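Fill-in record for DNA-directed DNA/RNA polymerase mu.
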Amino acid sequence: DKLRLDPPEFTVKNYACQRRTPLKHNNTHLTHALELLAESAAFGENEGRSVAFTRAASVLKTLPRSVQRIEELRGLPCLGEHSLRVIKEILEYGASQEVESTRQSEQYQAMKALTGIFGVGVKTADRWYREGVRRPSDLMDSEQKLNQAQQAGLQHYKDLNTCVSKAEADAIGVIVDQAVQAVLPGAQITLTGGFRRGKESGHDVDFLITHPEEGKEEGLMPKVVNWLDTQVGQKGQNSYLESKDGPARPPSNMDRFERCFSIFKLESQSCSPPEREKSHQWKAVRVDLVVSPFSQFAFAVLGWTGSKLFERDLRRYAGQVKNMSLNSHSLFDSHQRCFLRATSEEEIFSLLGLEYIPACDRNA
Ligand code: 8DG
Ligand code: MN
Ligand code: MN
């Protein structure tokens, strides 16, 4: 029983928002495996199981060095029996049978490919899977009804499943800024999402738009979209391809910002102009635009910077530990029954009694 008396190898706080998670860490062989199981659980619409694997992976991301033996994980939070079993197997044999058979399974591969289509969620992909659809190409000559977003998603499937580089994100930023300034001078745009957390590539580019004069931002999104739309036409010019509006009446757990999930046409960054002339090289890129009133801006930046698990734990921590309710609009203190104002992310962390975690350490 000497083992039991040894102090734990690592100490890790319970909630992702209480700890620093840098982008680069030392246990990718383990976290990739757990995240694949999380993804597969999500494909099966088992959210609890999916979050559990995601949490386990996230804890490993905060460890200062690579795990060698399962005993080193003693006392760490969020590592359930199943996750520990998978980790142990990988540490001992180099791979987990469950992970590898999931990776190879027809269902996992089909769901991965189908949910990779812009505008296709787990529910739709699962229905198609049960009807025999396996690959995006199966949809081209099938009877399946596709909405406009899904048609665009299918059309640009390859581009949209190619990572967006930081350079491409910056180039998109220039276009968005141009559009926004044209319809509302003085508006401010902020890069959010993974790129704000320091990622060098991403699946899309996320922007938050606001204006220092409260109210000026109202109705901005349709104007921006319209401006981008009318830029289409000139050959070889950056332009706007497609958009998917948020639901007309968003469910209560979604925020109420004006938003637009869109696809941009971005001219190739690497080609010289004469070469571009010949081949019309361009790439379709997913862009998320969100408009926030200035008074809610700090909450919106915090809410749209991610990671998804970091956001989930921020809200859970607010509710469970502080009896407060946090979303990307506001912070409500249920005990005092009032909204707490904040003009910066630092202030919000402080109101929650949390140490400030900079965006680069929110890669939970
Ligand atoms: P990636 O694109 O590089 O893959 O990573 P990411 O930038 O972290 O992921 P994302 O899917 O673009 O999401 C960025 C953040 O936006 C994430 O923290 C969650 C947040 N977000 C949505 N949808 C919604 C929503 O409907 N409401 C709120 N408040 N936040 C949302 O993706
Ligand atoms: Mn993103
Ligand atoms: Mn996004």
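KEY FINDING: The pocket of 8-OXO-2'-deoxyguanosine-5'-triphosphate (ligand 1) is lined by residues 193-194, 199, 202-204, 206, 254-255, 288, 303-304, 306-308, 311, 328 (CB under 6 Å).
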